[in-house]
């Protein structure tokens, strides 16, 4: 029996026992993480560089890409490290940091998705008030509120969870540090109830956001169906469906992971489900948005075309060309 004062590390759940499968998981996670980094990096660059995307939706999409990158960088690198080096350990401090950042980025993403839903609602249902309700200052305030609120929430949950005495061993039934699995190691009844109350309160806030999203999309679809032209309907749907798809993927995987029946629970299924809601949504979000958002696709294509054309010009031009030689490109004084 051990307690939290003497606990120095936790044991994470391994994806496989065979070395070949461990290496396979490493390469799979490496491919997923590189794809997510590239896709979200392209979105960040496109939104930052293209003035056509300097809109409230583009601003929130930039923030969403940051949360996706945060989610990937919080859980995947440690899983890759453990698979590559055939280990399952994570330090006590590392576990606390991983829990904090994962909660922070996941909750911030959900808050931003709720704000983005409000953006779509105002744009379609109250277009005449769009500039007033969603000006640059209002967007900055909403994004800052989302980040700050979820930072405090993640900090509160992490402090509450790791203040519990842990005396049920150090083996976590998950490939990353998560509150329910840490609570199973607790031997403090009062502390356990305190964290459960905090989780229930956070769950109520999440549920209220979910109801707001459902109500907003009911109003959005009613307004879209009243648009007389098919072209107008198609344009409205093209801006709403990516967001709705991202929300559905994020919410459905999260709900299934937390509310799946114990009768169908198994180690393999738990690992698959945990990957579905912690790794898959941040990886697929850029793909979903880039497939349906024509302005975003045009901005990425324009950026990539400009980059490759510039590289080609520098490659085949002479060394004295001012575009390629930074010394010659400097103005004369």
Description:
The protein has 333 residues and is mainly alpha-helical. Helices cover 75% and strands 2% of the residues. The chain has helices at residues 19-49, 56-85, 92-125, 130-133, 136-162, 179-183, 189-225, 230-259, 267-278, 280-292, 294-316, 326-329, and strands spanning 9-11, 89-91. The protein starts with 8 loop residues before the first strand and ends with a helix.
Descriptive key words:
333 residues, mainly alpha, 2 strands, 75% helix, 2% strand, globular, disordered C terminus
Short description:
With 333 residues, the protein is mainly α.
Please list the strands of the largest sheet in the order they lie side by side: 1-2
The biggest beta sheet is recorded as: 2 strands, antiparallel
Number of helices: 12
Strand content: under 5%
Q: What's the number of extended β-strand segments?
A: 2
Note the overall shape.
Answer: globular
List low-confidence stretches: 318-333
